[in-house]
């Protein structure tokens, strides 16, 4: 009887709480509708068809001032994903190197790793954006006095100028070939692991999965060699033309995001590696394994289960922190859509809802993919 009364009370409390939430949401929607009507602003998403009327300094998909505001959303979303993916890759690599430096027996490497982590993770990220953009990149020379890296690479206050293929479709084909190679290599690696579990040793072709991701794009390059012609930058008047320009805002955003996040990733990896029992290292060394083999085959596979959950949080933080690039005028989603487009259209509710929805969908997708990878990786280790 007491258990039944407790259940009834719990249902009543939950029902009242749900009603309060509905009333709060209803009041907010009603208030917003009244305010929009008072200002003569119609609700809905028809504004996405309106002409943008402003330019964008950096875009990876076709865009012009006559494009729609819906196109602006796509440009901002692609730019955000672009800097996020590059920063995640760089942060992971740098974080691993710094973690290994902190675990090194050499005092110099330990000191460098300690200084890196304690300095960068204790300085606000927004300040690091400003340092890279204003204190570093804005101090570079003018185009006529550019720094030269070889014959065709130039760096100045307006950005980095590099050779770039004239046919963009060929570039996308090579990128697609790389992705296909990575997917095929992953499945071949999984198959090799399964054979090892069944037979006790890897098959003779166990190195093929590491070759395929490089072989497939190489074959695509050979096939497209007649179409892949590079356009090199050259000085024309007071600026460079031709090739591709990497704007300073992009460089500063990637540098700040990757270096800042790498400090946290380094501590995650270091802590996970140190959590593995030292007796296992000693036993592996006693069996004749080299220190590199001990790290790769004994320590790191066991530490992976402790690395992935907090690493996921850092990746999600990086994606959300990319919105700070708006402070240095990099054209990502917040600056383009939640900033300029909002000022042009006045559709604050719809624009903010779309912006919030984008970050929510991306974060949930990344989290789901990493959780799936974690389940597969730990399954292999448990097998």
Description:
This protein is of the alpha+beta class. The chain has a domain at 68-126 and 262-382: MetI-like (MetI-like fold, Orthogonal Bundle). Helices cover 68% and strands 6% of the residues. It has eleven helices and eight strands. The protein has a four-stranded antiparallel beta sheet with strand order 1-2-3-8. A two-stranded antiparallel ribbon has the order 4-5. A two-stranded antiparallel sheet has the order 6-7. Strand 1 and strand 2 (153-156) form a beta hairpin. Helix 2 (69-102) crosses helix 7, helix 4 crosses helix 7 (248-275) and helix 10 (333-345) packs antiparallel against helix 11 (348-382). It is globular.
Low-confidence stretches: none
Percent of residues in β-strands: 5-15%
- CATH-wise, what's the superfamily of the domain at 68-126 and 262-382? MetI-like
Neighbour order of strands in the largest sheet: 1-2-3-8
Order of H and E elements: HHHHEEEEHHEEEEHHHHH
């Amino acid at each position: 009887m007491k258990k039944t009364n407790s259940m009834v009370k719990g249902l009543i409390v939950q029902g009242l709480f749900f009603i309060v939430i509905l009333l709060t949401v209803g009041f907010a929607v009603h208030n917003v509708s009244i305010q929009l009507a008072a200002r003569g602003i119609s609700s809905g998403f028809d504004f996405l068809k309106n002409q943008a009327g402003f330019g964008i300094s950096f875009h990876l998909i076709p865009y012009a001032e006559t494009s729609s505001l819906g196109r602006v959303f796509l440009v901002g979303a692609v730019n955000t994903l672009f800097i996020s993916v590059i920063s995640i890759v760089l942060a992971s690599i740098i974080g691993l190197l710094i973690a290994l430096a902190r675990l090194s027996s050499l005092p110099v490497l330990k000191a460098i790793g300690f200084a890196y982590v304690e300095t960068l993770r204790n300085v606000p990220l927004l300040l690091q954006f400003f340092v890279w953009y204003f204190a570093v990149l804005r101090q570079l020379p003018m185009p006529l006095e550019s720094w030269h890296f070889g014959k065709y690479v130039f760096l100045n206050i307006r950005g980095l100028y590099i050779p770039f293929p004239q046919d963009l479709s060929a570039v996308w084909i090579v990128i697609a070939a790389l992705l296909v190679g990575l997917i095929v290599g992953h499945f071949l690696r999984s198959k090799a692991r399964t054979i090892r579990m069944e037979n006790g040793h890897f098959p003779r072709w166990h190195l093929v999965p590491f070759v395929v991701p490089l072989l497939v794009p190489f074959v695509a390059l050979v096939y497209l060699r007649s179409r892949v012609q590079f356009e090199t930058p050259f000085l024309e008047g007071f600026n460079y033309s031709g090739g591709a320009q990497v704007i300073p805002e992009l460089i500063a955003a990637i540098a700040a995001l990757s270096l800042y996040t790498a400090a946290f990733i380094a501590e995650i990896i270091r802590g996970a590696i140190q959590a593995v029992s030292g007796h296992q290292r000693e036993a592996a060394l006693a069996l004749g394994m080299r220190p590199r083999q001990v790290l790769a085959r004994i320590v790191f596979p066991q530490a992976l289960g402790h690395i992935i959950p907090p690493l996921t949080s850092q990746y999600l933080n990086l994606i959300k922190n990319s919105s700070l690039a708006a402070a240095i005028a990099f054209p990502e989603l917040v600056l383009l859509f939640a900033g300029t487009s909002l000022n042009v259209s006045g559709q604050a509710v719809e624009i903010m809802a779309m912006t919030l929805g984008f970050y929510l969908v991306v974060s949930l997708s990344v989290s789901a993919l990493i959780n799936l990878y974690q389940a597969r990786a730990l399954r292999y280790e448990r097998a």
